[in-house]
Amino acid sequence: xxxTITALQADSAEGDFTRRPLERRSxxxxxVRIAIRYAGICHTDxxxxxxxxxxxxxxMTPGHEIIGDVVEVGADVSEFTVGDxxxxxxxxxxxxxxxxxxxGEEQFCSQGVVATYNGQDKDGETTHGGYSQxxxxxxxxxxxxxxxxxxxxxxxLLCAGITTYAPLKRYGxxxxxxxxxxxxxxxxxxxxxxxxxxxAEVTVLSRTxxxxxxxxxxxxxxxxxxxxxxxxxxxxGTFDLIINTVGASVSLxxxxxxxxxxxxxxxxxxxxxxxSFQMFSLLTMRRNYAGSMVGGLxxxxxxxxxxxxxxxxxxxxxxxxxxxxxxxxxxVSGDVRYRAxxxxxxxxxxx
Length: 351
Ligand SMILES: [Zn+2]
Ligand SMILES: [Zn+2]
Known about the structure:
Elements: E1 3-10, E2 17-24, E3 31-40, H1 43-49, E4 66-73, E5 85-88, E6 91-93, H2 99-102, E7 114-115, E8 134-138, E9 143-144, H3 151-154, H4 160-170, E10 178-182, H5 186-197, E11 201-206, H6 212-217, E12 222-225, H7 230-234, E13 239-244, H8 252-256, E14 259-267, H9 280-283, E15 288-291, H10 297-310, E16 316-319, H11 324-332, E17 339-343
Parallel strand pairs: 10-11, 10-13, 11-12, 13-14, 14-15, 16-17
Antiparallel strand pairs: 1-2, 3-4, 3-8, 3-17, 4-5, 5-9, 6-7
Helix pairs in contact: 4-5, 4-10
The structure holds zinc ion (2 copies).
C-alpha cells in the first residue's frame, strides 16, 4: 500500500510551486519512512527546477537537505527505530556493489547513484525530494543526527556541509594551512565554519564587504572584498587551498593567482556555462585545479559528528512553504543569510 502525502512541486522551469498529493511507496525490507520536519533550499534545487543543467522532469519535488523523524521501518532495518531524528542528503540509493560504493563513495556509483529528487529509482520511478511531508529511503542512505543538534539549522549540513567538508578534509585544511573561501552564501558560510573548526587560517573572498562582520563571526581570520581588484595583487601566491563555492562564472585566472606553490583550488559550485582559464595559471607555481561533488554516506556521517562536536550548524532563515518561489530569487541574488530552510509543518495538506 502506498501512502499519500502532500508535496510542494514545480511544474515547469518558470518555478511556480503547487501543493499536490504525492504517493510514497510501501516499505521494502530495507526502507525507512521519515516524517519530514525541515527541508533546506540548496542552489542545486534552483538549477534543477529552472532546468539550467538540463534533464528536468516535471512535476518536480526538490529538496536534498532533509531532517525528520522515523515513523516506520522495513523488516530488515536494524540501525533505526521509530522516533529517531534522522537526515537524508543528495542520494537515496546506489548499487552498493561497485568499487566506489564499496569505498563509501556512493556519489560516484558506476551504476549511477539515485539522486534524492529528479533521479530515477531502481523501479524506474522518478524520485521526489524533501519539499514534502514524508520520504521513503533505503536505510544505508539515512544519516543519524547527533543528539543535541538543532534540527532546523542542521538541515543544510546534509548537502552544504558535506559538499564543503569533503574537499577541506581531502586537501588538508588544518593548523598552519591558509584557506580561502570564494563566496559567502549557503555553501561558503559553512565552509568558513568548518575550515576554522579544522584549525585552518581562513580568509573570505567575497565580492563586497557587506558580509564582513558575519564572516569574521563564523571564524574567518580575514575577509577581503574582491570587487576593486586590489586583493588579487596583495594576496597573490598566499593560499594553500581555495574552495570556490560560487555557482556562477568567476575570473578563474585571478583566483588561481592567489594560490601559492603547489596550492589547490577546488570548485564545488556548478556554473551552467563552460569555464576557461589560462594554462599558465596552473603551470607557474605547480598549481592544481580540482572539483568535488558532495560526499559518500560514511563521510557525511563523519561530517555530522564533527559538526556536533564543534557546535557547527548553518546560519538559517526559517521560511514557510508559500515563500519558496520568493526565496529562490533571494538565493540567486545572494540575499539569504545564509541558508533558507522550509518549515514543512507549514505545508498544508493538498485537497
Ligand atoms: Zn545541494
Ligand atoms: Zn555502486
